[in-house]
Amino acid sequence: MNTVLFIVLSSLTQLEGSFKVGPAIILIGTLVTFVLVGIFFRAKDPSDYYAAGRKISRVGSGMAIASNWMSAASVLGMAGMMYGFGYNGLAYVVGWTGGYVLLLILMASQIRKYGKYTAPDFIGDRFYSQNLRIASAVFTILISFAYCVGQFGGIGLMFKWVLGLDYTWSVIIGSSVVLIYTLISGMIGATKNMQIQYVIIVVSFMIPTFMLTFKYDYFWLLPQIGYGQVVTDIVQGIPAPNISDGVALLNGYGHDVAIVPSPEFAMPWDPGSGTTFFQWMAICFSLMVGTAGLPHVIQRFYVVPKVSDARWSVVWGLFFICLVYWTAPVYSAFGKILSSHPDVGNLAKDAIVVYTAQLGNIHPLIVGLLAAGAVAAAFSTVSGLLVAGASAFSHDLYVKVINPASTPKRQLQVARIGTILMALMVTIVALMELGLIAQLVSVAFSMAACTIFPLFLLGIWWSGSNRAGAKAGLITGIVITAISLTYFIVGLSGKQLPAQEFVSYWLNVWYFAWLGAPLSILVNIVVSKMSKNPTPVEIRKFLAEQVHT
Amino acid sequence: MDKPGQNDYHFNLFQPLTDYGRRIRNLILIMLLIWAGGVFGFQILLRVLEKPVPEQALLDFNTAISNINQGSEETDDKLLFLKSLLMVAGKNVVKPSDRVILNSWITLSYSSLVSDSLLQQTLVRKSQLKMLKSGLVKSGNEDYNRLKEEIIQLENQFLEETSIVTGFTPKSLESVILVQSLDENFTPPMLIEDEAIQELSAIMNLYLTHNRSVLTDTPFLGFPFHYFYTAVFLLILFVGLCLVYNLRIDRRMKIEHINE
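The joint structure predicted for all components is written out below.
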């Protein structure tokens, strides 16, 4: 019995390679729960599929916003960025939370007041342009697509860790499961699931941090503050172990070697981490502005019953998000120390959360729960993204452009076909492993910041922004996006375009919105002013009387 | 041409149509100002105040290399030089290409402290250790424990041997990094060129110089202050801003008798 137990426990604690029984049971149980919830709360008509029938409460919507938001990038990628790039990783923490302030004060209630189902709906209607509706629908799909790539990567990584399969099979299995449940549930099932997923994410993410701070004798009652001393210890270094009778005592971390002073972990834009002040600012700005332009985030405001609910759901959502974002740096700090032994070496950044718990000898079942939480995070976001992408495909392209006379049943079919196509293509790109999770996701943010955000910002807050301005602004955003993506793809292939290094730095694919978003807004304003066709009076009237009163 | 404020419904954020709109505009602008100042203002302040500050290891390195260049080096200088290199090699942010250069210098530095025969013996042992470790990765359950035992024994022996030369405590931080960093394929160079020394100096400067200021060096709740501000306080600020905004809007709507 003891031998069997030993083998089982050994399999649970290996960093890589084998099937882990406990985590696998927890993961499968979690996924089955999601599917059952999806079936129980399944969508019965298009209104349910797109916007959950507007039946969700403030706190519930806040939880759904948080769950929808907290993806593999938040749970896995963010700690990985801080582990690998020190203070620059905090640009992701700040960028992905600060954007909610913009979202609340500039958009949330106004979007709900406008009363449309999707982002392309709003853009097409506000700028009285079918072309803009189509363009924004295409971009909604592309943004959701780019966002999903990082998520599928995260799902693959966790399935690989739990099931011991290779990355390819892990991505294929994970994406199949998330696709099945999104298809049978739609947004209403997804919203219910998101609330459950949020609880799983928070509980699984926080428990190990209490254990780590308690075990290593830091202030454990509030690990989000207690890890401050860990950061200072990393900066100053931890002395080598004591020697007693010629035998080295293990230090507090269970290692026979401590950590060299590593100020690069905490000092701003440290040269050793290869990052700069400009990059910190550009990433932070791009993520913030992108947050306020992400279609699947904006879409969440359509599911609340009242305008004030849209506002308050942002506050609840942000608070729930911050609970996890205050906690993520705990993992990076402990991960830094626990992996400081030269034998451990550099760990895969995107899996540092799970590795940290393992290296800290947290009980394997707790580590399994943590992995299940990470998968839940990716699932909740992916389901929202697939619904947003499918909505753009069926509602904004099919119903509004291709076949306006389609029946609700046919619309639902098209939405589901769109979901399947998108999931298939995302899986293929995710298998290419183009970057770290957080970096891949930040591409979607920059795209949203350059294209959707300016249209929403000016569309809501300036009646003078007209169709011509919107088109010119959108084209500007698309051009900047295309330049950045082209240089990135060419760079990946090892070839060089003119000024490759210059563009790769200043218009990097992870943060090109620092330039693209303001430029798009500027062009929109200038062209709108120059245009001789002002916004129709009925739209101005609607904005003034319905949206801003 | 229509003017804002008339019944043509022209408006923008800065020129709202109603008194209610003006109050909302003021609230939004104040919020945006606090938000932008809190996030970007602080980072700019951090940038303005910062100065490049070397770690002690870089100062040691510069002292040692200056003595070595002048040909007045003693064993202590060689050890100081070696130790400063190990302080960089122990960081896990070092790029693989820089690590190769560092390892080669660490081995060169170590070789200056031992006889040729002892160096060869050390490098052979390093090679054995490396082979055993690569075998461990591929081993099955039965071999794993045996190999692990062998590695531990060999490593302890290795640490003891190098410690006698360097004076480091066996199993100390420096000893373990030294054993990890020794390059088993090392061949002593005929001549050390200035360019190689400059290359090493650049690496040492890169990893041992950090941007520091009063904001980074002031402790707060255990954190360096700037880290607390960015990782903890800013998030509190964001939630607070959202909360205040909603409360103000609700209050304003109540005053204005606005029902949704």
